[in-house]
Design goal:
5-stranded parallel β-sheet, 14 strands, 4-stranded antiparallel β-sheet, globular, about 600 residues, 21 helices, alpha/beta
């Protein structure tokens, strides 16, 4: 463990002294709750090396540590191949005093990582699925930064393609000059409205063709409106002025809407990429690959790559009419980034698990093209978000928009907080800020506490529970500590280490010492849930301590100072860990 190198070194030295093993491979873990002790060593590897009974080794090692390191170890137990060690209060307090607001941050490692997240389409607003994507990407960037990495937050905006043309064509047909200003609606919502209208008309035309005896699969290709959209895409790629003008106008509406949503969500980017600017590079690279024989031209005129020998399939890279597909611009964008950032150590894509296959193909193509960085590409795959009512569908207009959901979270936080009667004396402006902090904190935490790989069900009401596994519970713990410190007029004053620790105090200290390992684990596993669940456990332990150990009423001034300091450090760590999840803490609740 990062926080206990000294402890590990002491144990290694003892093993070397007793058994003449110069670099023993020992694993130091927290002792499980059902056993006595603070730290546990697995003895089976040592047993294998020494050809001795593990329990016998544990007893010899335990006796040595107690005898020669009484300031560090006070007792031990050997149970079925495990040595459980209990450390002294003196040791815990000594290492505890090194904790500060930067605890868990690692010095710069100069590893450069680009993480791409959000990647919206400019034909609809951001929705609940985008929220999980944005929160995962942003939080992972912050966690990686805490480990000393230089992180570039990137957003690739999908601003071209047939789906964009669908919204454009629908507005051209039925918009009657409607604008966000004329209708008082956010630009991304306005454009999304026309995407839904297109789909309704498309389905209507398909039904009419089917009734005329045309098979449905053929009707989907022959519907006049889809042919018009396909022609618009061809005109766009040809740079037809009226199509380009319409495209720029509607995309600008969407960008203004996106920016407002990102700002409220607390998400930002260092680099913006646009598919319209990268797909041509992708086409160029594919044509070069065609000349080199990496790709081939199929009988229908499309350009493809055969990856069947790699356990994948054939993949179309350019359509027969010369237009690009999704992977075309992904190839172009990846190569552009390799060129832009020659020291790039890793390229991370935050994209839903329905694209798992796509990224296997992308990384394999980059490898075939000869880019060594392909081995450093990583797909942070995550499960879909569903609501109690089921799956969401953009084309049918059944998606929960991010803006609407954030409004709902604000309103739910307002109603529950007012029911509890805790904020009646606050000024109106402060109340509104508090509802926003609680509502968005609840939303972010509920999503980030789930392992990214898992599909999840989001329930707004369940996410705001002041006594559950939620952000409001953790936020309330922070506010409680803040109130306590203000009452005590707390000043950061040193205390004597001559303290007999209570079990609740020992648990908090051990937890705080473990935070660097938690952040390291979250970074290595690309999993913010590790941080989310750990900070919840810290809040629970603090509340137990708060109820069991008197603080302001403590007569022993030194002990009172220690408990106030423990509260202060706990609040610092709660704030720090929540900030890595993009969650704010209120000063009072």
């Amino acid at each position: 463990m990062l926080a206990h190198k000294k402890l590990q070194s002491t144990i290694s030295s003892a093993i070397n002294k007793l058994f003449n093993i110069t670099q023993p491979n020992i694993s130091l873990q927290f002792t499980r709750k059902e056993f006595n002790g603070d730290y546990t060593i697995t003895l089976f590897q040592l047993s294998k090396e020494l050809r001795k009974n593990p329990d016998e080794i544990g007893k010899i090692l335990g006796d040595e540590l107690i005898k020669n390191h009484p300031d560090t170890f006070q007792s031990y137990e050997v149970i079925k191949g495990f040595l459980n060690l209990t450390v002294t209060d003196h040791y815990l307090l000594s290492v505890y005093q090194n904790i500060n607001e930067n605890w868990g941050n690692q010095p710069p490692s100069r590893k450069e990582i680009l993480i791409e997240y959000s990647s919206p389409n400019t034909n609809k607003p951001l929705h609940l699925g985008h929220i999980r994507n944005n929160l995962l990407g942003w939080s992972m960037a912050e966690i990686l930064k805490s480990q000393g990495h230089n992180v570039i937050k990137a957003n690739l905006i999908n601003d071209r393609g047939i789906h964009i043309c669908k919204s454009m064509l629908a507005w051209k047909k039925w918009g009657n000059g409607e604008t966000p200003e004329s209708d008082g609606i956010k630009g991304d919502h306005l454009v999304g409205k026309y995407y839904v209208l297109f789909d309704k008309e498309y389905k209507k035309q398909i039904d009419e063709l089917v009734q005329q005896g045309i098979p449905k699969e053929e009707a989907e290709k022959q519907a006049p409106i889809i042919k018009e959209a396909q022609q618009m895409l061809i005109d766009w790629e040809a740079g037809k002025p009226e199509v380009m003008e319409l495209w720029k106008m509607m995309n600008n509406w969407v960008y203004q809407g996106f920016n407002a949503t990102y700002k409220r969500m607390g998400v930002d980017f260092d680099k913006l990429y646009y598919e319209s600017e990268t797909y041509l590079l992708g086409k160029k690279i594919i044509n070069e690959g065609l000349e080199k024989g990496i790709f081939y031209k199929a009988p229908d005129g499309s350009v493809r790559i055969d990856l069947t020998n790699e356990g994948l399939d054939e993949k179309v890279l350019l359509r027969a009419d010369g237009t690009s597909v999704y992977i075309t611009q992904d190839i172009g964008t990846a190569v552009q980034r390799f060129q832009q950032f020659p020291n790039l150590s890793q390229l991370i894509y935050v994209v839903g698990n329905e694209q798992d296959y796509h990224f296997k193909v992308l990384f394999k193509i980059l490898e075939k093209l000869g880019y060594p960085q392909a081995k450093e590409c990583y797909h942070l795959s995550y499960g879909m978000v569903e609501l109690p009512t089921g799956k969401m569908k953009s084309r049918e207009g059944t998606v929960v928009d991010a803006d609407d959901l954030m409004d709902e979270m604000y309103q739910t936080a307002k109603e529950i907080t007012e029911q509890l009667g805790k904020v009646s004396e606050l000024p109106e402006k402060e109340k509104k800020q508090l509802y926003e902090i609680i509502g968005l904190g609840a939303l972010k935490y509920f999503i980030l506490k789930v392992d990214p790989k898992k599909k999840m069900l989001f329930n707004p009401q369940e996410s705001i529970d002041f006594e559950g596994h939620t952000a409001p519970f953790i936020q309330y713990t922070y506010a409680r500590i803040n109130s306590l410190l203000k009452k005590a007029n707390y000043q950061h004053i040193d205390f004597s280490k001559n303290i007999k620790l209570q079990p609740e105090e020992r648990e908090i200290i051990k937890h705080l010492l473990h935070i660097p390992d938690v952040l390291k684990e979250a970074a290595e596993q690309y999993n913010p849930a590790v941080v989310a669940n750990d900070v919840y456990e810290l809040a629970k332990k603090y509340n137990r301590f708060y109820h069991e150990c008197p603080i302001l009423k403590e007569d022993n001034e030194n002990l009172k100072l220690f408990r106030l300091n423990l509260s202060y450090i706990t609040a610092l760590m709660i704030k720090k860990m929540l900030s890595l999840l993009g969650i704010q803490v209120p000063e009072r609740m």
